[in-house]
């Protein structure tokens, strides 16, 4: 099913104005934060994680788990089509990069070493998302 929502596209200058320096580095320059330093790696409250670049809901807290890696980790996105997978051959290895399907922002990577039911570990940068608790 195709969404009628228009994808968020901004100029580099507009992204720099809208995002914090940490968010810009991660979302637009494909950076990463040091483990155990970003927001929400150890948050286990109930709620939803949204893209910091465009407010797209990405992950629910009931899919979050402690992978021990120092980044927020989830076993599946909130729904199909909210993230895109891109082959990443940087750093001399082959990985699967995860980007927001709406704004193209770099979120992190997915690995095949997660828990059931998916066996996946979406290892996300905390600065690439913001958390909204359930009320």
UniProtKB/TrEMBL annotation:
The active site is at residue 123. Its cofactor is Zn(2+). One of its GO terms (cellular component) is cytoplasm. It comes from Martelella mediterranea. Binds 1 zinc ion per subunit. The zinc ion is important for the structural integrity of the protein. Keywords: Metal-binding, Oxidoreductase, Zinc. It catalyses: L-methionyl-[protein] + [thioredoxin]-disulfide + H2O = L-methionyl-(R)-S-oxide-[protein] + [thioredoxin]-dithiol. Its EC number is 1.8.4.12. The lineage of its organism: Bacteria, Pseudomonadati, Pseudomonadota, Alphaproteobacteria, Hyphomicrobiales. Zn(2+) binds at residues 51, 54, 100, 103. Pfam families: SelR (PF01641). PANTHER family: METHIONINE SULFOXIDE REDUCTASE (PTHR10173), METHIONINE-R-SULFOXIDE REDUCTASE B1 (PTHR10173:SF52). This is Peptide methionine sulfoxide reductase MsrB. Gene3D superfamilies: Peptide methionine sulfoxide reductase (2.170.150.20). PROSITE patterns: MSRB. GO terms for biological process: protein repair; response to oxidative stress. Residues 12-134 form the MsrB domain. It comes from the Bacteria. InterPro entries: Met_Sox_Rdtase_MsrB, Met_Sox_Rdtase_MsrB_dom, Mss4-like_sf. Belongs to the MsrB Met sulfoxide reductase family. One of its GO terms (molecular function) is peptide-methionine (R)-S-oxide reductase activity.
């Amino acid at each position: 099913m195709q969404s009628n929502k228009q994808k968020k596209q901004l100029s580099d200058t507009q992204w720099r104005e809208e995002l914090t320096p940490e968010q810009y580095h991660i979302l637009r320059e494909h950076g990463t934060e040091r483990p155990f330093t970003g927001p929400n790696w150890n948050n286990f409250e109930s709620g939803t994680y949204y893209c910091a670049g465009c407010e797209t809901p990405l992950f629910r807290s009931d899919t979050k788990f402690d992978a021990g890696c120092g980044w927020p980790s989830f076993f599946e996105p909130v729904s199909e089509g909210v993230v895109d997978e891109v082959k990443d051959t940087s750093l001399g290895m082959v990985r699967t990069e995860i980007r927001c399907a709406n704004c193209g922002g770099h979120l992190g990577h997915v690995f095949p070493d997660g828990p059931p039911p998916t066996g996946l570990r979406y290892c996300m940068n905390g600065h690439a998302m913001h958390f909204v608790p359930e009320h």
